[in-house]
Amino acid sequence: MNTIQNLVFMAGLIVACFIAAYQVTDGQLEVGKFVTLLTYMTQLQGPLNFFGTFYRMIQNNMINSERMLELFKEQPTVVDAPDAFELPSCEGDLRYNDVHFTYDTRKPALQGLSFHCKPGTSTALVGESGGGKSTVFRLLFRFYNPQSGSLQIDGHEVQNVTIDSLRRHIGVVPQDTVLFNESLMYNLKYARQSATDEEIYAACRAASIHEKILSFPDGYETKVGERGLRLSGGEKQRVAIARTIIKDPRIILLDEATAALDTETEEHIQEALQTLARGRTMLVIAHRLSTITMCDQILVLHEGKVAEKGTHQELLSARGKYAGMWKKQVRAQRAAEEAKILRDKADRLRRESMSSSAIRASGVDAAGVEDSPGSSDEDERAVFASGALVGGEQPQQNGDTNAARLGSLSMSPRGSTGTLIAASMGSRTAEAASGNVSENASIAQRESLRSGAVRSPSPVQEHRD
């Protein structure tokens, strides 16, 4: 809009300038009035641009306000029942009875899911993706209501309990921890605003992160950055565990809390989770089966229902789906370990080869320095060549001399590496010298025959006139 407005204004200014210039040349208008006209037009352009910008801002704000009012009109699909009551206390007894649920009527998510979690026990949910593991958590947290069946907590139907009182007794440690761009103390107190500093410190000690926070320059007042950007994955997970300890719930939901962590960090997180799970009911979603071997019961979900149930040893003895998944993961872990060993071995051999090459190069330099005071290779080749001109038996003598030289070289008081390298270089020099001797002898004989200094050994008949 400002562009069109400026074009119109500039067009009007040009027309006004042409008219005023014509009147000045015709004597109808003075030059001072022409300058006054240009000044007024220039001062008028700023307010007009402001009104155009202000109108555009009002228009955009009105559109955003309409969208916000549309959000206010949205009604939640899960609300408290008219006769719902608050859950004052919770022991952590969970029971799913023939629960059916679907996001889309064409593909059910849960089909008759039934299991029981006793207070203070840990239950693991495993299975392929899309088996309904996350749906179990969403139904318990009252994000959705099941189509049929019942979900009970301490013998009460969750639909008869208020949502706020239910969620007050549930703590979640997600895979991706959500942190605000504030201090660590602010993020920790988000779980319970009334928590004291001593309670915060005790929870961080239980989560094995108190000492790490104190090592930061600002301690608990350290800014974590947007979504916890300044913290590592393990530190964010331990902050989430400390926040759950501060909330002090009776039911804990772990949704792949250690999936994106390395082995060493995972061990520390597992220790913190064991501290967190004492006396509480814990539900765990895990794809890495090695993290759930100590759970009281393991549920294998397949197509929205429990396919297998039992402890780790019981499921391995049953040789079913869980045993197959365990074998695959053990095989993959073993292959990864073997690949790591081979990679480390290859790196070690590469380092050894590089060091041996450096030693060999230094040995060659040392051998060259020690041989330089005596006869050089070029002098020996000159002697061999001159001996070759005398007779044909000299190359053999040269070979014997070379052998004697190699023998004396091997007996010289040098290091073992330098001796071997010098011997190798000597053998190559001997071969090169013998080749040069033969070649020089043949060249000398051809030159002598051509000049007539030496008679050819073959009988030559002289022609007489």
UniProtKB/TrEMBL annotation:
<dbReference type="InterPro" id="IPR011527">
    <property type="entry name" value="ABC1_TM_dom"/>
</dbReference>
<keyword id="KW-0472">Membrane</keyword>
<dbReference type="GO" id="GO:0005774">
    <property type="term" value="C:vacuolar membrane"/>
</dbReference>
<dbReference type="GO" id="GO:0005524">
    <property type="term" value="F:ATP binding"/>
</dbReference>
<dbReference type="InterPro" id="IPR036640">
    <property type="entry name" value="ABC1_TM_sf"/>
</dbReference>
<protein>
    <recommendedName>
        <fullName>ABC transporter domain-containing protein</fullName>
    </recommendedName>
</protein>
<dbReference type="InterPro" id="IPR039421">
    <property type="entry name" value="Type_1_exporter"/>
</dbReference>
<dbReference type="Pfam" id="PF00005">
    <property type="entry name" value="ABC_tran"/>
</dbReference>
<keyword id="KW-0813">Transport</keyword>
<dbReference type="InterPro" id="IPR027417">
    <property type="entry name" value="P-loop_NTPase"/>
</dbReference>
<comment type="similarity">
    <text>Belongs to the ABC transporter superfamily. ABCB family. Heavy Metal importer (TC 3.A.1.210) subfamily.</text>
</comment>
<keyword id="KW-1133">Transmembrane helix</keyword>
<feature type="transmembrane region" description="Helical">
    <location>
        <begin position="7"/>
        <end position="25"/>
    </location>
</feature>
<dbReference type="GO" id="GO:0140359">
    <property type="term" value="F:ABC-type transporter activity"/>
</dbReference>
<dbReference type="InterPro" id="IPR003593">
    <property type="entry name" value="AAA+_ATPase"/>
</dbReference>
<dbReference type="GO" id="GO:0000041">
    <property type="term" value="P:transition metal ion transport"/>
</dbReference>
<feature type="region of interest" description="Disordered">
    <location>
        <begin position="352"/>
        <end position="465"/>
    </location>
</feature>
<dbReference type="GO" id="GO:0016887">
    <property type="term" value="F:ATP hydrolysis activity"/>
</dbReference>
<dbReference type="InterPro" id="IPR017871">
    <property type="entry name" value="ABC_transporter-like_CS"/>
</dbReference>
<keyword id="KW-0812">Transmembrane</keyword>
<dbReference type="InterPro" id="IPR003439">
    <property type="entry name" value="ABC_transporter-like_ATP-bd"/>
</dbReference>
<keyword id="KW-0067">ATP-binding</keyword>
<feature type="domain" description="ABC transporter">
    <location>
        <begin position="94"/>
        <end position="328"/>
    </location>
</feature>
<feature type="compositionally biased region" description="Polar residues">
    <location>
        <begin position="435"/>
        <end position="445"/>
    </location>
</feature>
<feature type="domain" description="ABC transmembrane type-1">
    <location>
        <begin position="1"/>
        <end position="60"/>
    </location>
</feature>
<feature type="compositionally biased region" description="Polar residues">
    <location>
        <begin position="409"/>
        <end position="419"/>
    </location>
</feature>
<keyword id="KW-0547">Nucleotide-binding</keyword>
